[in-house]
Design a protein that fits this description.
The protein is an all-alpha fold and about 300 residues long. The chain has one domain. The protein contains 13 helices and two strands; from the N terminus they run ααβααααααααααβα. Strands 1-2 form a two-stranded antiparallel sheet. Helix 1 crosses helix 10 and helix 9 crosses helix 10. InterPro entries: Acyl-CoA_DS, FA_desaturase_dom. This is Stearoyl-CoA desaturase. Keywords: Fatty acid metabolism, Iron, Lipid metabolism, Membrane, Oxidoreductase, Transmembrane, Transmembrane helix. It comes from Actinokineospora globicatena. Belongs to the fatty acid desaturase type 2 family.
């Protein structure tokens, strides 16, 4: 990985071609249908249609796909926190795609633009774009949390992710987003049916480990965009309002230690203080031990001392 946030700005326009009609319809479906499933899950949870197989499959697919986003889409592809073998690179792109947060080229371009304009005009999902009054912050929270997802203007990947566009493997995985969407929703159903040896086991696994799991992961990820730019602690200096919000730390696999990340975007570890659990960093450490990841950008005490807020 050679492109960084700092090097992404240039003369090319911020937006590329707008999202076409049917992909836009798909965006609404992939956001709203799992969200409806999440809402429906509340009454369904009371003694009907939920078993330990569903819980185990949901937990597995949640962890698996969340790490695809945090380790793959975010720390590796967007920020180049380490170098990876080709097999790991392609695998991370596929597993990240299975989180249903958009194709890899779009995700990376959006996030690099977020860092280039963090909490300023041009940031795709800052909660501070509309002012600081209660009404403006409520509007900003909605926009940062999920409203921005429905914007048909796509970030220009030629400007913000030229390295990804130049990689034929990434272009291929990007085009296969529909395939990985089917896999991430149908694989839990198939496993649920096989484990319970019943079609009903497949139905409940599809609901809990497919739709509900996808929606829950959406909202955890979006909470880093919204909550972690509004509420929390800021022990390190950054040019924006990124914060640490510890209640999200485990569910986000360490992404909620967001202040350090914005202070030092290429760092492979975000949770650097005592007691800050960072599961994604531990996974990167494991990849390094296995020889799949090299040149990992671990934080140093000297670097952290320079970033400490005065």
């Amino acid at each position: 990985m050679t492109a960084t946030v700092e090097g992404s700005a240039g003369p090319k326009p911020m937006f590329g071609a707008p999202r076409a009609h049917w992909p836009q319809v798909g965006t609404y479906l992939f956001i709203l249908v799992p969200f409806a499933a999440l809402v429906a899950a509340v009454p369904l949870a009371w003694g009907w249609g939920l078993g330990w197989v569903d819980v185990a499959l949901a937990a597995f697919f949640y962890t698996f796909t969340c790490l695809g986003v945090t380790v793959g889409f975010h720390r590796y592809f967007t920020h180049g926190s380490f170098k990876a073998t080709r097999a790991l690179r392609v695998g991370l792109a596929v597993v990240g795609s299975m989180a249903l947060q958009g194709p890899v080229l779009h995700w990376v371009a959006d996030h690099r633009r977020h860092h280039a304009f963090a909490d300023r005009e041009g940031d795709p999902h800052s909660p501070w774009l509309f002012g600081t009054s209660p009404a403006a912050l409520a509007k900003g929270f909605w926009h940062a949390h999920m409203g921005w997802v429905f914007d048909r203007n796509l970030t220009n990947a030629e400007r913000f992710a030229p390295d990804m566009l130049a990689d034929p493997d990434m272009r291929r995985v990007h085009r296969q987003f529909g395939l990985w969407t089917a896999v991430t929703l149908l694989a839990p159903a198939l496993l649920g049916a096989l484990i319970t040896w019943s079609w009903w086991g497949g139905v409940t696994a599809f609901f809990w480990a497919g739709l509900v799991r996808v929606s829950f992961l959406h909202h955890v990820t979006w909470s880093v965009n919204s909550v972690c730019h509004m509420i929390g602690e800021r022990p390190f200096r950054s040019r924006d309002k990124a914060t640490n919000f510890w209640p999200l730390a485990v569910l986000s696999m360490g992404e909620a230690w967001h202040n350090l990340h914005h202070a030092d975007p290429t760092s492979a570890r975000h949770g650097v203080q005592r007691g800050q659990v960072d599961i994604s960093a531990r996974v990167i450490w494991l990849f390094e031990k296995l020889g799949w990841a090299t040149e990992v950008r671990w934080p140093t005490q000297e670097r952290l001392a320079k970033l400490t807020a005065k």
